[in-house]
């Protein structure tokens, strides 16, 4: 089961360091992830695809999520940043396009060569483990 922290508590506790990574396609891994999540090509059993394939929008989502997203620590100890866009940002594909996504997930947020972002559907209501604030706020 995942644990959640609001952005303020995650920074205060030293669990995240917000980044404004300048180049999100600077290596082959990141370029592959950018293409995977902006262009519905290839054969993936499940894939989330942004509505807007422009790099600038992808970068803006990543920076916004890094600077204000909440922290999710999943059951494997991975740290992901979640940001709610308050608009549809993409769809999830799993054999057919399903479920509009209104949030973004940033994975490997602390690794300049692996950081990437994709649309996702926000989890049910969660509260910050530290301050008990409703997430997102």
Average of per-residue pLDDT values: 89
Euclidean distance between termini CA atoms: 21 Å
Based on CA atoms alone, the radius of gyration comes out at 14 Å
- What share of the residues lie within helices? 10-25%
**Major beta sheet, specifics?**
5 strands, antiparallel
Give the topology string: H per helix, E per strand: EHHEHEEEEEEEE
Q: How many E strands?
A: 10
Percentage of residues in strands: 25-35%
Q: Structural class, judged by helices and strands?
A: alpha+beta
* Shape by Cα distribution: globular
Count the DSSP helices. 3
Strand order of the largest sheet: 1-3-4-7-8
Catalogue the unreliable spans: none
Q: What count of structural domains?
A: 1
Explain what you see.
There is one protein chain. This protein has about 140 residues and is of the alpha+beta class. The protein has one domain (about 5-135). Helices cover about 25% and strands about 30% of the residues. It has helices spanning about 5-10, 30-40, 55-70, and strands at about 5, 45-50, 70-75, 80-85, 90-95, 95-100, 105, 115-120, 125, 135. It has a five-stranded antiparallel β-sheet with strand order 1-3-4-7-8. It has a three-stranded antiparallel β-sheet with strand order 2-5-6.
List keywords for this structure.
3 helices
Short description:
The protein is of the alpha+beta class and 137 residues long. The protein has helices spanning 7-12, 28-38, 55-68; strands at residues 3-5, 47-50, 70-73, 79-84, 90-93, 97-101, 103-107, 116-120, 126-127, 134-135.
